[in-house]
Amino acid sequence: MNESDLIRDLDKEFGACAQEKRKRRVWVSVELNELIDVCRFCYGKGFRHLSTISATDYPSEGMYELTYFLWSYEDKLLVTVKTTISRDKPVIDSVTSIWGESAQIHERELHELFGVKFEGNKDLTPLFLEEWDGPPPFRRDFNWRDYVREKYYDKENEREKPYYL
Amino acid sequence: MNEKSPTTYELLFGPAHPGSGNFSVKLRVSGEQVVSARSDPGYLHRGFEKLMEYRDRMQNSILSDRVCVLEALNWNLVHAEAVDELTGEEIPDKARYIRVLMAELSRIQSHLIWYGALSMGLGFDTGFKVAFGYRDYLLDIFELVTGGRVYPAGYICPGGVRRDLPDSAKTKIEKTLDKMKIMLRKCENFEKTTLYPRTRGVGVLERQDALRLGATGPIARASGLYSDVRVDDPYEIYSELDFEIPTRDEGDAYARCLLGRLEMRESMRIIRQVLERMPEEKLDPVKPKIAHKIPEGEVYVRNEIARGEAGIYMKSIGEETPYRCKIRGPSLLHMIPVLEHLLAGCQIADVPAIYWSLNICPADMDR
Description:
The complex is a heterodimer.
Chain A: H1 3-14, E1 19-22, E2 25-29, H2 35-44, E3 49-58, E4 63-72, E5 77-86, E6 91-93, H3 96-99, H4 101-114, E7 117-119, H5 144-152, H6 161-164
Parallel strand pairs in A: 2-5, 6-7
Antiparallel strand pairs in A: 1-2, 3-4, 4-5
Chain B: E1 8-13, E2 24-30, E3 33-40, H1 48-52, H2 57-63, H3 72-87, H4 93-121, H5 125-146, E4 156-157, E5 160-161, H6 169-191, H7 195-199, H8 207-212, H9 217-221, H10 229-232, H11 253-277, E6 297-305, E7 308-316, E8 324-328, H12 331-343, H13 351-357, H14 362-366
Antiparallel strand pairs in B: 1-2, 2-3, 4-5, 6-7, 7-8
Helix pairs in contact in B: 2-3, 3-4, 4-5, 4-11, 4-13, 5-6, 6-11
């Protein structure tokens, strides 16, 4: 299977408009309700390796864009599946039923850093942050400089002043 | 065995364990046997993905050193490639050769740390000292070329490399490679009596598990999964070079350790080829671009670094800083699902062998 075969198949099955950005890179945007079907379809086509999952925050448009990077060891192709979810209610179906443990860790990370809830993922315990009480820190509207100033700046301590001015 | 049975107890491996890195595993142990393991990352979380959203490309290339202390140059390269693909800038031929040269030297250096840490974990101090001693010769080269022994401060940067190779570099690298050859022979000689008995048949990762758990790089290749980004998805000048990808079928800790040694040999082969074909012309230094916008777009670049597959997803909306930068490090999957899978059911004495055979780096996991 090469790039154009994959684009044709995705168009035939889902009517999705995939495009080839360069050699070995195919990008496709799908509707939220089709995501699991598209992922399962790709898995069946040999995309056994889930390279990573990423989320991008668009506060002004009120949405998150989730990006799945799938690699096929046989065909040496990378397909990127993109979908959007609402920012107010960031809930999406988990892909752990397809990629198992490797998907589980990536989703766990995104849940912690972006606050996206993955339905069907059994373990979403925080990975990195300990005793964190702020909002998900990787959202665009979270300003870490302000957060640190509010939380840790001891205004009575003169020696700290230069660091927070 | 029941996990909550009153005869089991909890054993902490790290984060204060010598050599474990800033990372810990909580082991549930019954007698001498590990019942289950739970990884506990987060001791080195610095939030690079967020920090990069506040900085321009040159600042980010310096920041990308810190993603993994042990192979800073490889991470430099991943970041530089992501920006280059977005800007579509032409990279001078010689810069491409220097990039590959430094990336391969960095790979050998990183494998030496792997070898040293594994030896130390198994109580084989000589191996540790030999590996770290010879690593210093490579750090000398890094100092000569980039100015920094461990952190190159963004030597491989968007647009090429910061400066040309010094005149003395070629001879120095060739001399160092000869020394490395001697070291590899030394390692081979003492391996049979030291590393072999402690690692043989320990922590076997089956091929289908490697696929399911998302193992990449040497860990996957030691389990018989033939995959290497340099061959499958070539970048820079790798498609023009002649080298082999060693694989093993056993999947145990010894296979992984052996693979590290074989890969160093292949990297040395690549370096010799690169030195031979290196263009003669003088290379102009890349001047830091200030207030230059990155064109709109999004890319995902993958590289083969010493530990496995590294990737950066970069999204730009036409500002100086990237809008989003997602870093994919190989250790995240090696240190959580793979490690937990391999540790369950093993003996306490085998924990170090399994732990260090996975070539871990807490820095690129936490980011």
